[in-house]
């Protein structure tokens, strides 16, 4: 299958998962609110475990999200971008890496 969704993952009914010929793989315990997730033309997209994608977020052609990332409302991720673990994207695409406790 071209879309794989892990255990305990919530995908909002109005979230859009858009793929052409490449797979979208969403890890375990993720929450995808009303957002757009579009797979890259090559290599597809991998969303790690525990990723929160909030309302009105655009994820277009990003390659890899690491574990426990948060994309706040009205933010986005650039094409072919790879996010490190615990990244938080907020405001006008400001970024920080949260400290794991």
Q: Could you characterize what this model shows?
A:
By secondary structure, the protein is mostly beta strands. The mean pLDDT is 85. It has no helices and 14 strands. Helices cover 0% and strands 38% of the residues. Strands 2-5-8-11-13-14 form a 6-stranded mixed sheet, with no helix packed on it. Strands 1-4-7-10 form a 4-stranded parallel sheet, with no helix packed on it.
Shape: globular
Number of strands: 14
Neighbour order of strands in the largest sheet: 2-5-8-11-13-14
What percent of the residues sit in helical stretches (DSSP H or I)? under 10%
- Rounded to the nearest angstrom, the radius of gyration is 12 Å
Largest pleated sheet? 6 strands, mixed
Q: How many DSSP H or I helices?
A: 0
Which class best fits the helix and strand makeup?
mainly beta
- What series of H and E elements makes up the topology? EEEEEEEEEEEEEE
Strand content: 35-45%
Mean pLDDT: 85
Question: Roughly how many Å apart are the termini?
Answer: 36 Å
Query: Are there runs of 5+ residues with pLDDT below 50, and where?
Result: none
Task: Itemize the secondary structure elements and their pairings.
Elements: E1 3-5, E2 10-11, E3 16-18, E4 24-26, E5 31-32, E6 36-38, E7 45-47, E8 52-53, E9 58-60, E10 64-65, E11 70-71, E12 76-77, E13 87-90, E14 94-97
Parallel strand pairs: 1-4, 2-5, 3-6, 4-7, 5-8, 6-9, 7-10, 8-11, 9-12, 11-13
Antiparallel strand pairs: 13-14
